[in-house]
Amino acid sequence: MRIEKIEISNYKSVANSQVLSLHDKVTAVIGKNESGKSNVLDCIGNVSISSSDESYRRKMSQPSRYNLQDDTAVTLIFRIDEEERSKLNVQDKITIIQYRTNDTPFMGRIVQGFGKEYFENPDFGNKLDKIKEILANHFPLQHNLHKQIFNSALSALDDLAVIHNLKWKSQISFLFTLEKQIPNQEDAVLFRQQLEYIQRYSDRYYDIFPDIVYYTEQNLNSQYSFKKDDFDNLRTSHGEMLINFIKAAKFNENLFEEMMLTYDSGRKQDLIDDLKELIDAQINRQFNQFYPQEIVSLVPSVENSSLKFFVKSNSRNITISERSNGLKWYLNLFITLLSKNIQNKNILFVIDEPGVHLHVDAQKELRRLFYELPSNYQILYSTHSPFMISENHISDIKVIQKNQEGITEIVNSVFSENILQTTKKETLSPILKSIGMSQQHVFGAYPGKINVITEGITDSMYLRAMAKNLDENRFVFIPAIGASNIYNLGLILWGWGFKYICLYDFDSAGIREQKKAINKYGLENTISLSNVCDGEDITIEDLIDDADFELVDLKKELVKKSVSKMLEAKKLCHNLSSADVVISELTRNNFTVLFDLMEKSFVKN
Q1: Helices then strands (H, E): number in the chain?
Q2: How far apart are CA 157 and CA 160, in angstroms?
Q3: pLDDT tens digits, residue range 383-404?
Q4: Which CATH superfamily does the domain covering 1-116+345-420 fall into?
Q5: How far apart are CA 487 and CA 183, in angstroms?
Q6: CA-based nearest residue to 92, from 101, 102, 81
Q7: CA distance 529 to 284
Q8: DSSP E strands: which ranges in 114-231?
Q9: Neighbours of 573 (CB within 10 A)
Q10: Residue 64: CB partners within 8 Å, gap ≥ 6?
Q11: Cα 219 from Cα 240, distance rounded (Å)
């Protein structure tokens, strides 16, 4: 099961109803500082799907100062796959659950979908009616205490079709205790059978629901030193992560204290051996399924009252602090999951600015590992870093912005016209930098290929996409930073022994720099786009038919002037390079002519 969409209304800076669409695997959120990203993540991260209690109502009850209503609402839309739909035997693929702070009692309400359908099953209703009948026959309800207890227990089961919470578990446990008080043995057996059916039936439904984990980065230290007073409050003295580790290993806290403080060397060694066995059984074996990049083991070492942690890999023990930040991040995350006993559940992780203190390479590793997490996990994270953005997953990125009134808005596509023009460049800067960096890192000169230097990144993107569409393998496109830098980049290639040609736009900068290259530097290996198209101010976009821009809801003239030109180019290039998309004849002819001119110029020089 996946969370497909989350709607937030009247929470902090989110005054009006705003919907965030989530992807099956990873969803990244970008936006300027103070745009409301943390508010959105706070509201989502604090949702408690498995238990609706008053603490969550208090966290939600922070209405926007822009909204006159005091009722905050969070609505979650869940989607099941075909296997889950078959397991539940329902027709609907979605269910909608809503939390409202003004509801009394406070709990998630099933608005519509397969949740209602599942619990309105006649078989379930018949079993529930039978339980009520047996209770009515053997426990007269005229006594107020009986009436109050039974009604409370039965109403929890009656409400399963409209209320989403786990309080029914405690009520079923209570009802099971009544079996021994039913004097008729046949009725007692029947009573238990009906309850067991309801328990299994309800468990089947609730087991597939994801938990939401608002993950705060925490680190297991390489070394801990203990004294007697520390164990009065171990969480305060040594932090939450050590407590998580003890829970994850299923090691008794009293035994842990004894292991660290005892002077009996034999007893200490026995406890150390017990801890190592538990770490292997409870942590190491499962972690290597969670983190498939390499086989590693967490290894403890105890000396006197000091505890050290090593990570063993390839028969070598290295302290945690010396391992890669990516591995440490995932080990800490996994230990946190184990401590909550939810490692095998469907989970949505909500993470505000992950890896913000990591090195560039570690951020890239972290981003890559997000996509390699087990299939039962979704990730929702915010970032300002271009290294936490992948140009291959542009559609996974959402934008959060504030309008002129200071109200937070969610935009579910970075290509949307709803992104404010006044702040668009700053808002989208992580994506633009990411695309720019990846283009510069990907393209390099190659011997045996026709190396083409272009004025900029978007020129190379369009040329590369059309080369793929036309099944052209002759070219390598190398972006310069503006027309004035083509010559300098050419000198570098020449120094490396590469042949190349220079491609200039037919605009003022392109005309000026091509003339300079020919007249001042004596270069003959230049081509102008005027050799392909007639007209003035010809750029690479002019080789593409208007109809091809319109296929992806873009306007050529707007793209040429856009502050996020690379982003629009990425969108169009995805279409141009697809074998399933029919490109206009004009576009194909223009690029065929250009590619032929490039080859002739390259061979000639």
Answers
A1: 24, 20
A2: 5
A3: 988 888 876 787 889 999 999 8
A4: P-loop containing nucleotide triphosphate hydrolases (3.40.50.300)
A5: 98
A6: 81
A7: 60
A8: 163-164, 211-214, 223-225
A9: 22
A10: 10, 11, 12, 13, 14, 15, 407
A11: 9
**Tally of CB atoms within 10 A around 331:** 22
What single letter denotes the amino acid at residue 150?
F
The conformation of residue 292, written as its DSSP 8-state character, comes to T
CA atoms within 13 A on the CB side of 342: 19
The rounded distance, in Å, linking the Cα atoms of 174 and 168 is 10
Crossing angle of helices 585-604 and 457-469, in 10° steps, is 110
User: E strands, 101-207, where?
Assistant: 108-113, 163-164
Enclosing H/E stretch for 506: none
Query: How far is the CA of 211 from the CAs of 207, 242, 332, 350, 453, in angstroms?
Result: 10, 23, 18, 11, 51
CATH class of 443-604: alpha beta
CB 419 within 8 A of CB 79: no
Q: Terminal CA-to-CA distance of the chain, rounded, Å?
A: 60
Across-strand partners of 9? 73
In this structure, how many other beta carbons lie within 10 angstroms of the beta carbon of residue 114?
24
Residue ranges of the alpha helices (H) in 501-584?
Answer: 508-519, 546-550, 556-561, 565-576
Residue that the structure tokens 């020449």 belong to = 494
CB 531 within 8 A of CB 525: no
Q: What is the C-alpha separation between 152 and 171, in angstroms, rounded?
A: 8
Residue 436 pLDDT grade (very low, low, confident, very high; cuts 50, 70, 90): low
CA 122 to chain centre: 39
Q: What six digits make up the tokens of 441?
A: 């890192």
pLDDT in tens, 60-113: 788 887 776 778 899 999 999 999 999 999 999 999 999 888 887 677 888 889
CA-only gyration radius of the chain, Å:
31
Q: What is the DSSP letter of 399?
A: E
Q: Record the tokens describing residue 319, joined without a space.
A: 């302290």
In sequence order, what are the beta bridge partners of 411? Answer: 399
* Band (327; pLDDT cuts 50, 70, 90): confident
Distance separating alpha carbons of residues 75 and 18, to the nearest angstrom: 10
Give kind and range of the element (H or E) at residue 527. strand 526-528
Which two three-digit tokens encode residue 433?
A: 């930098």
What is the DSSP annotation of 218-274?
A: ----SEEE--GGGGGSHHHHH-HHHHHHHHHTT--HHHHHHHHH---HHHHHHHHHH
270 pLDDT exceeds 80? yes
Domain with CATH 3.40.50.300 in the chain: 1-116+345-420
What kind and span of H or E run contains 30? Answer: strand 26-30
